[in-house]
Design a protein that fits this description.
Pfam families: BBE, FAD_binding_4. By secondary structure, the protein is α+β, with helices and mostly antiparallel strands. It contains 16 helices and 18 strands. Strand 13 and strand 14 form a beta hairpin.
């Protein structure tokens, strides 16, 4: 079996013949989520959070002061006030600057994109936004599922803040660092942090929404390893959020979702050993799908912490299907082999490998054998690279957290819903369902200890529909979402009702309860403290009321 794999959505596009496995739920479908700082599009909105000292009591309402419309001269003055770069319509770089990861959001036309050079640039931008009533949206990696890391106003892009350093059991990471840069930068020190798979996802958006990843069962979520963050709040104050400084804000930043409390400019993490990994790809014939679902869920969530596994069920418009799992083990390949042998349904194909931690993360992210430079989007702006080979894609996605095993009827209902895709999805499209094992260190943190409430899950499910090539809306998008709604609805009797905030779902009703559960009220309280005027607002931002 070929060891070279790609991220889940690239596999869906490539066709089953050449696709032997799919990276976990944290591949390039993360954003939210997972890889961006989500922010509002159309009203005032900011996404990430981060920065230094001063008490929250000084934060005034952003809506109390009178505003004057921004003129061309005001924008010119803002550009001169920044140490970073401001790109406006008419600039030859504007189209590249305004684009998010998904082409379906290419119609968004922000008034400006500021590549901030630090916390003081963020404070300057926020003062400009307050003075002129300009909506703001913060952007880390640009992977927001809802397109909420852009909008009509001023986008604050933290891509220039991409430094990565480590010393003495901790790492300091700039808010705009992409995951490939985090993994590569820390690997040289023999350490890592648990994070996602997609190489171009921004570390800040991932962290703020939780951060489910390949080593999460052993090391916890990304947010569980956060020790402090530098955050610029709505009043322009640069604050440190940690266990001892602004602890309520620190609590909220660990799972409260991007775009709610301020703009993060730097993060500090506890590091973990970048241990050599054993990983592998297992597959079964589609006819065994229901039985494999039941066997996988009895195996992966209760396995030793060192083991992580996904389960992916993929389908193409032409009727092709694929059933498999990607596994990773922080230990010897012989022990991984022993764990695989415990699956109740024997795989028809097994391929196991041993590589360094960095090489394994490259495999999981679909960039095995690529250089660090190639593992970016192409371009010359911050966060991009002229040698970048990662391509943009449009898709829809929904999620579930399962707290009890799927019954036989539930497994069969899921397979039936997937089998309907060739009849109902758009020609040229592809879709799938991916389970990601939880448990282990993730579930040993209390539901109220951080804002990430999903501490009782067995596994997470993401339902994904890739639009056909060139489709950004219209019938192709509508048919994709129709299938997504159908498969998600089929799972209502079996799921917990929880959803992963990093897989932010613009179609989800009851999203506050689904994302935050019993932590929603406390998040509202933190919101009122640090953003009383609602500057950081988007369609699914934490409410003030």
């Amino acid at each position: 079996m070929d060891e070279t794999i790609t991220s889940r959505r690239t596999v869906l596009r490539a066709g089953a013949a050449g696709a032997v496995a799919v990276a976990g739920l944290t591949a390039c479908s993360k954003g939210g989520g997972t890889g961006t700082t989500a922010a509002g599009s159309g009203t005032t909105a900011v996404a990430t959070a981060s920065t230094t000292s001063s008490s929250a009591s000084s934060a005034p309402s952003a809506s109390t002061a009178a505003t004057t419309p921004a003129r061309a001269a005001d924008w010119t003055a803002l550009a001169k006030d920044l140490d970073g770069l401001l790109i406006r319509p008419g600039d030859s770089r504007y189209d590249s600057a305004r684009h998010l990861f998904q082409p379906q959001y290419d119609s968004l036309q922000p008034s400006g994109v500021a590549y901030v050079a630090g916390a003081h640039d963020v404070a300057t931008c926020l003062a400009f936004a307050r003075r002129h009533g300009v909506p703001v949206a913060a952007r880390s990696g640009g992977h927001s599922y809802g397109g909420w890391s852009s909008g009509s106003g001023l986008v604050l892009d933290v891509g220039k803040l991409g430094s990565v350093s480590a010393s003495g059991g901790s790492a300091t990471v700039g808010a705009g660092a992409r995951l490939i840069d985090v993994y590569t930068g820390l690997a040289g020190r023999g350490v890592t942090i648990p994070a996602g798979s997609c190489p171009t996802v921004g570390v800040t958006g991932l962290t703020l929404g939780g951060g489910v990843g390949v080593t999460g069962r052993a090391y916890g979520l990304t947010c569980d390893n956060l020790s402090s963050a530098e955050v610029v709040t709505a009043d322009g104050q640069i604050r440190t959020a940690s266990a001892s400084s602004n602890p309520d804000l620190f609590w909220a930043l660990r799972g409260g979702g991007g775009g709610n409390f301020g703009v993060v400019t730097s993060l500090s993490f506890r590091t973990r050993p970048a241990a050599q990994c054993a990983y592998g790809f297992l597959s079964w014939p589609w006819s065994k799908a229901a039985a494999v679902i039941r066997a996988w869920q009895a195996w992966a969530p209760s396995a030793p912490d060192a083991l992580w596994a996904d389960l992916h069920l993929l389908v193409w418009a032409d009727g092709r299907t694929q059933l498999g799992t990607t596994v990773n083990y922080l230990g010897p390949q012989s022990e991984l082999s022993n764990q695989v042998d415990r699956l109740a349904v024997t795989p028809s194909s097994v391929s196991l490998h041993t590589r360094s931690y960095l090489e394994t993360m490259q495999v999981m992210g679909g960039v095995s054998g690529w250089s660090q430079a190639a593992s970016h989007l192409a371009g010359s702006l911050p966060g991009q690279n002229p040698s970048g080979r990662v391509t943009r894609e449009s898709y829809g996605a929904k999620s579930d957290v399962f707290t009890r095993p799927l019954s036989e009827a539930g497994a069969e209902a899921l397979v039936a819903a997937i089998n309907r895709y060739p009849r109902t999805g758009p020609a040229g499209g592809s879709a799938g369902v991916a389970f990601d094992a939880l448990g282990g260190a993730i579930n040993r943190v209390g539901a109220a200890d951080t804002a990430f409430v999903h501490r009782d899950g067995l596994f997470m499910a993401q339902y994904t529909a890739n639009y056909p090539d060139g489709v950004v809306g219209g019938n192709g998008a509508d048919r994709s979402w129709s299938w997504l709604t159908g498969v998600w609805s089929a799972m209502r009797p079996y799921s917990s009702g929880q959803a992963y905030q990093n897989y932010i779902d613009p179609h989800l009703t009851g999203w506050e309860q689904a994302y935050y559960g019993g932590n929603a009220a406390r998040l509202r309280s933190v919101k009122r403290t640090y953003d009383p005027g609602g500057m950081f607002h988007f369609p699914q931002s934490v409410p003030l009321g």
